[in-house]
Amino acid sequence: MIIGEGKLPYSVLESVIKKFSFSDNTLIKGPGIGLDCAVFDNGNDFIVVTSDPVTYVASGGYCVNVNVNDIAAMGGDPWFFLCTIILPIGFEQNSFEDIMDEIKKECEKFKINFGGGHTEINKIVNNPVICGFMVGKCKKEELRGAFNAKDGDILIVTKGVSVEGTSIIAELKSKEIIEQYGLEFYKKCISYKSKLSVLDEARIARTMSNAMHDITEGGLINGLYEIAEASDVSIDIDYFPIIPECKILCDSLGIDPLGLITAGTLAITTAKKDLKDVLKNNGIEVFEIGKIIKDGKKEVRYKGVVQEIFDKDEIVKFFQGDDNFEFNS
Predict the structure, then answer these.
(1) Core-most of 55, 98, 173, 233, by most CB within 10 Å?
(2) What is the enclosing helix (H) or strand (E) of 246?
(3) pTM for the whole thing?
């Protein structure tokens, strides 16, 4: 079977993961669908580790944030960051320095120790590949992740969708967006780049939630399926909180926002309905969109209709036709 572009199908991942055995009892959580971090018992607390790449844009800032989000969604705090950067032939030195400047800025913002990594120029890549590795700490009683959603939990998400997808399209098509929709619209779109982190809301929610999951590649629908798979539950949705600017861009480009990459959106399941007010009182935009059902089906349903998993992120459509993509009036 030839595997298409995007994340590997769940069936392929599951068949490969099953071949591994783990004999070290310090490993609390190993690989699995929807489990973006491994968890190790360090005695007094847990160590959470993750690895996440950025391939769509040459942004060190994006890379730090997506790794921070994995740690945060597990209930942890980021600690150390390393990265591997593979650059194409002919890449400019000042562009590499821009990548590193972004990494430095974001690490300083989150008080993360930068531990180095690896860099190289290689003809095998056409665009920069930035792969991060992050280590975090987590109190044992605050461990969360996608695997603990409970029957009857409400499902809330922060900021709406798609935070990251909107900012990526704005970053790469600034001229076209300004010409079509105006400067103020563009400024609103690109402002979502500053909202990529879910660390603030995760720190608030981790003591009041049952499960948390950072919604990234594959968009909201695929992220909710990862919760359903990891927690063995179904999810009934009655509202999709699509960012207005995202809807305008996606409608124009023929992209479905529900399958568009959206780092910056945190999905939270909780039995404590007052969590919404706590988040709002701390300046976090939050939406209640559905509930968790323990029915053995592991489905994601919108008003009773089962939603299909996206076989690849909708941003792929944008990049595959990048030279010809136009914004429709």
Answers:
(1) 233
(2) helix 244-253
(3) 0.93
The average pLDDT across 288-292 equals: 98
Quick check: 192 and 199 in contact, CB under 8 A? no
Backbone angles phi, psi at 235, to 5 degrees: -130, 125
Residue entry with tokens 């929610």: 205
Q: What is the assigned CATH class of domain 154-320?
A: alpha beta
Name the one residue in this structure whose structure tokens are 């559905």: 290
Q: Are strands 113-121 and 77-87 parallel, antiparallel or unpaired?
A: parallel
Which residue has tokens 């704005």?
A: 170
CA distance 59 to 105: 12
Topology of 10-142 in CATH? 60s Ribosomal Protein L30; Chain: A; (3.30.1330)
Q: State phi, psi for 32 to the nearest 5 degrees.
A: 180, 165
- Within the chain, all domains assigned CATH 3.90.650.10 are found at 154-320
CA 16/CA 20 separation, integer angstroms: 8
In whole angstroms, give the CA distance from residue 165 to residue 250. 10
Peptide bond into 194 cis (omega under 30): no
